[in-house]
Structure formats: structure tokens, C-alpha cells
Amino acid sequence: MQVVIFAGGLGTRISEETSMVPKPMIRIGDKPILWHIMKIFASFGHTDFIICAGYKSYIIKEYFMNFRAYNSDFSVATNTGKTNFFSEPDEQWNVTILDTGVETQTGGRLLAAKEHLDDTFLLTYGDGVADVNLEELLEVHRREALEVTLTAVQPEGRYGALDISKNSVASFQEKPKGDGAWVNGGFLVCKKTILRHLVGPSSIFEDAVLAHCASIGELSAYKHYGFWASMDTKRDHLKLNSAWENNQAKWKSWVD
């Protein structure tokens, strides 16, 4: 099944990095977070990707144009350019990269991919990783038979929670799971029919599709209780990078 990845935003909340590269190309370990996301999907057999790029799209294009060189050892004759590769990358993916514009909103990016989409496809954002079970997600989508199924998550709180009675602290919980509310964690399954809700580059996917589909009874949710993280800030980046470097990357669903 096709996997559409939103990868065109400005990433202003992590501008320390995005001044140089688009957010999906910020590295976790020695690979872009985009690679990590694609590895998650590939571990479930989904290797046909459509990347909706925008801001600094040429960096994403250059990375995949030279993917074999980046991920293999080789020798090159500098006078002729003849190259001999000693190995091949493990990834055998089909990657379509679309420059959907810098100012285009998420719905507009999806609309720009219209001619490339099958009747049903997976969709995610280029800044989130999780140990989500995609087979279970797809089963919920098939069972509910609605236009969209999203993965609902409960993000980890950023601060410890106190239960205070008068001046006495009855309990302390270090960084609990939010406030009990569920949020859209990405990792969606969509029917192509959702494109009828989009009108142009200014369409916002979360409003025009998700909110609208919820209002007409066409949105279902798969509750994911496991690991999920979004790389919104430099703090998030450092945390994900530390987890990877210390072999604690809970989103790593593939075998090296």
C-alpha cells in the first residue's frame, strides 16, 4: 500500500536545524528522521512512498537521487565518473518526490499528489515516530469501513504531575501520559474519496478532512498505547537522538 508523507513545512519551532535542512531531513543518529519513518512502514511491507515536499525540497530530492551512494561503499574514477559499488543499500523502496510548494497547506499537498494515489493509502507526517502496529491499524480501517482512520495517542507530559490537597502533596507522577486526552498521532489510512473535501493549496488536511469527516461520521480511530514521539523542538530532537544512540529507540521495528 502507498505511504504518503507530509514533508514540506517550514519547521519554525526547530529553526536551529531547519535553517539548514527541511525538518524531515534532521538526523537521528546518522540518518534523517524521514528514513526512520520510512523504515517503520517498510518493516510492515509498505515500500511505495509519495513524499509531499516543499520547503528546501531540493535537499530531499538530492538525498534520494544519491541514496545508493550515501548508503554504500564504492570507488569512483574521477576522470570518467565511472563508479563501482561494493555493496547495495538494504532499502528497496519506490520513492516519488513531489515539490508541492513552500506555502501550501497540508490538504493542498495531498491534493497535489492526486494523480499518484491509489484508492486507499497510508498517510503520515515527516516528524513523528512510533511503535504502532500498522496491521492492527489497517484492520480497524477495514472493519469500520469509513473514509479515514487515524492513530490516536496520548503524548507524554512535559512536566511531573502533582496531586495537591491544601498544602500537602498527596502524589507525584513523573511526566504522566498527558491529561487523558487522545490526539492525532499521524499514521492514518485514507480513502482517495477524501480529496473531494479539498479545494486547493490553502486547504488544511486537519480541518477540511479530519474535522469534517468526524462531523459526518466518517472518521474512526485506532488507539495506540505504545511509544509515540513528535520532533517539534530541539529538545525533542535531542531526546530522540539520545534514545537512538543508546539503543533505546522504541520505534525501531526493523532488524539490521
Taking all Cα atoms into account, the compactness measure Rg is 20 Å
Number of helices: 8
CATH topology: the name is Spore Coat Polysaccharide Biosynthesis Protein SpsA, Chain A
Using the coordinates above, name the CATH class: Alpha Beta
What is the assigned CATH homologous superfamily? Answer: Spore Coat Polysaccharide Biosynthesis Protein SpsA, Chain A
Biggest sheet details: 8 strands, mixed
CA-based shape: globular
Q: Beta-strand percentage?
A: 25-35%
Number of domains: 1
Indicate the CATH architecture.
Alpha-Beta Complex
> Average pLDDT value?
92
Distance between the termini: 23 Å
The helix/strand series, from N terminus to C terminus, equals EHEEHEHHEEEHEEHEEEEEHEEH
Unreliable runs: none
- The tally of strands reads 16
Oligomer: single chain
Q: Structural class from helices and strands?
A: alpha/beta
Helix content: 25-40%
Describe this structure in words.
This protein has 256 residues and is an alpha/beta fold. The chain has a single domain, classed as Alpha-Beta Complex (Spore Coat Polysaccharide Biosynthesis Protein SpsA, Chain A). The chain contains 8 helices and 16 strands. Strands 1, 4, 7, 8, 10, 13, 14 and 15 form an 8-stranded mixed sheet that branches. The chain has a two-stranded antiparallel ribbon with strand order 2-3. The chain has a two-stranded antiparallel ribbon with strand order 5-6. Helix 5 crosses helix 7. The longest helix has 12 residues, at 234-245. 37% of the residues are buried.
